[in-house]
Every structure is written in structure tokens, then in C-alpha cells.
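so my prof wants the structure for this chain in the C-alpha cells format not the other one, which i didnt know existed until like an hour ago. anyway here's the sequence
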Amino acid sequence: MNHETILLYRNAFERERMLSRLAGYPQLRLHAHRIGTHSPEIMMRNYICYCSDLPSVVQMKRMLPSKNLLIFCPKSMKMMCSLLEDQYTIVLSLTCSEPLLEMMLGRFLSAPHPHDGVNEHPAVLTKREHQVLTLMVSGQETRQIASLLGIKVSTVIAHKKHLFLKSGVHTTSQLIVWALFSLYQ
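here's what i got, hopefully its the right format
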């Protein structure tokens, strides 16, 4: 299996932090490249980078569509950034435990290549769930959503519960971020 990996960084500080964290993993054959410079001639399938905020994670995923991507982020951003994980993307705090890092590196290195025939199954929403979610993203409260759709408040709450189950998130703010990046791209 090819463990050649591009380490993307914005500045020397990021590069050194990631290199020091990954130094104990000789199976990674890292090639460091500064973001914004010419990309490497050979397109690799594995990339590791550091993103300090959610928009940076989104930018990285758009820059490297259908590539295996390990994103390090600050511990405080881990939960929100994790909303963008998929079959090719793993998000870890740069300060995660060694056992967790080792386990996730194993997963990262054995992840399927986008052209290996693996398909992700996106959440399928009903028309009404989509309407409720769209109004939530627009900033509407539960009572306002019920009034606008001509349904009971308890029905809106039931739709929200289904949305939480289908998205796998636990808070309204996480659900809105999930919707923005999963459904409205």
C-alpha cells in the first residue's frame, strides 16, 4: 500500500507542530508542501494538514475533493470540524492521545481511494424535513416554523428529532453546520 503522504502547511510553525507530532510514525512517508505554492507534480492520494477553523476545513476539502485527508485542528474546534468527516476525511485534535492518533493513522492509511468503488450514502430527507431544516438554517424558531408550514409545534419537534438522527449531530448549531456543508453545497 502506498503511504506516500503530502503534509500541507501554511507556515513553518504549523509544519513543525505536525512533523513533531507525526515523527514517531515511520510508515508515513511525508513530503511537506506549503499551501499556495506549486502543487507537487505527482498527485498523491493522502494529505495531512492543520486547519485552525471551520472555514479552513471547508476550503481544504474543496481544494482536495475525493482525496484521503487527515485534518488536525485545535481541540476547541474538533466537534464542529468533525461534522465534515466522511469516508475520505478524518479530523483530529493536534493534542489527541497517542493511542487515538495511532488508531486513526491506521484508518487513514488504509482508507479506500476514491476510485476504489466505495460509495457514501448521504442522508435522505423527506420533503417536510427539508422544509423544516431550510427554515432552521434561515434562523426561524420552532413556533415560527410551525406557523409558516401550518403544522403543530409538536410536529416540528418530531421533524427535528428525525433530522438529528439522520445527520448524527446533537445540537441545533451542529445541525445547521451539517446542513450548510452537507446539503447546500
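also thought this was worth mentioning. The chain has two domains: 4-116, 127-182.
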